[in-house]
Amino acid sequence: MSVHRVSDPAPLVIAIDGPAGAGKSTVGRALAERLAIDYLDTGAMYRAMTFAALRRGIPEGDLAEIAAMAPEIEIVIDDRTVMVDGIDATAAIRGRAVTEAVSQIAANPTVRDVLVARQRAWVAAHGGAVVEGRDIGTVVFPDARLKLFVTASPRVRAERRVGEIGGNVDEIEAAIIIRDRKDSTRDHSPLAEADDAVVVDTTGMSIDEVVEHIMGMLG
Questions:
Q1: How many CB atoms within 10 Å of residue 76?
Q2: Is the residue at 4 inside a domain?
Q3: Do residues 216 and 134 share a domain?
Q4: Element (H, E) at 100
Q5: Where would you tag: which of 2, 40, 127, 187 has the fewest CB atoms within 10 A of its CB?
């Protein structure tokens, strides 16, 4: 594929898509640091919206109430911190309650429309970024200079998650497979590999190796 060089005048946007636990966040942060540009974890935005819905006591299945809430929620996100309506939710959005509910909230078309607009505005304000999520190259930034689909086997992803938070690897692997199925079959902006994306399988690779591989694509 033809890839523009970083020195091009257009803002540099690198889209990183892929399933949960594949290493997108770690790779994205390291790549952004190497390129001296900002990093945006769009998944944190969906988790923030889920946190807001749970805090307001809105049932996951109440699509109308969640849709009405979405435009009202204030989300301020940077490389390390997520604020939701003035509350530091950085740790809470990674908790079990949010993790179990986020797929359904993220499947809400209004939530996705609201957050896609915010993601584009965030990147415009920052003059480009490494943007990580599950529909970045297909929906949010279809004209990104480089599109990556970062993946790994469900077992490896489960083992990584156990290393981070503990738990039973078999149970986590089963949960990952279920979430992959939900994310890839949802009606609105499903998890999908863009036609012009480069697949990067991180199974058996270190983060440094992955970043060097991607840097080679940029020339």
A1: 12
A2: no
A3: yes
A4: helix 96-106
A5: 2
Residue 198 lies in a domain: yes
- Which of helix, strand or coil describes residue 172? helix
For residue 83, give the 3-state DSSP assignment: strand
DSSP classification of residue 95: S
Tally of domains in the chain: 2
> Has residue 3 been placed in a domain?
no
pLDDT tens by residue, 183-214: 888 777 777 788 999 999 988 888 999 999 99
Structural domain that includes position 209: 11-38+127-219
Pairs from 77-82 (Cβ < 8 Å, separation ≥ 24): 77/40, 77/41, 77/44, 77/45, 77/48, 77/122, 79/29, 79/32, 79/38, 79/39, 82/44, 82/47, 82/48
